[in-house]
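Key result, reporting period 2: structure in, sequence out.
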C-alpha cells in the first residue's frame, strides 16, 4: 500500500527509496524487539545460519541497490513497483502465496 501511494506522490527516486527504507526500518525494529523477547522460544537458535544468511543478504542487497539507484530513472522504479504489486496481487488472488 505504501508503494502504491508513493508512486504518485511526486517524489524523486532518492526520496521514494529513502521513504521506503525509513518506514521498513521502523517496522523491522518493532518486529525485532518482539522477536528478541521470544528468541529462545521461537526456534531461532536452531536456525542461526538462516538468520545470518538473511542478514548478510539484506546488507548486500542494500549495497547493490544503492549502486543501481544511481543508474536508473524514477520512471523505471515506478513501473517496476507497479508491475511487482500487480504480480503480488495476482499471486495472492490465485492462492500461490
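The corresponding designed sequence is given below.
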Amino acid at each position: 500500500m505504501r508503494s502504491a501511494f508513493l508512486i504518485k506522490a511526486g517524489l524523486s527516486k532518492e526520496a521514494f527509496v529513502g521513504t521506503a527504507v525509513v518506514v521498513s526500518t521502523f517496522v523491522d525494529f518493532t518486529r525485532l524487539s518482539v522477536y528478541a523477547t521470544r528468541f529462545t522460544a521461537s526456534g531461532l537458535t536452531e536456525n542461526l545460519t538462516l538468520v545470518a544468511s538473511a542478514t548478510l543478504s539484506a546488507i548486500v542487497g542494500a549495497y547493490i541497490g544503492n549502486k543501481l539507484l544511481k543508474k536508473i530513472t524514477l520512471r523505471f522504479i515506478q513501473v517496476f513497483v507497479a508491475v511487482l504489486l500487480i504480480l503480488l496481487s495476482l499471486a495472492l488472488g490465485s492462492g500461490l502465496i
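Residues 2-94 form one domain. The chain has a mean pLDDT of 81. This case is discussed further under Risks and Mitigation.
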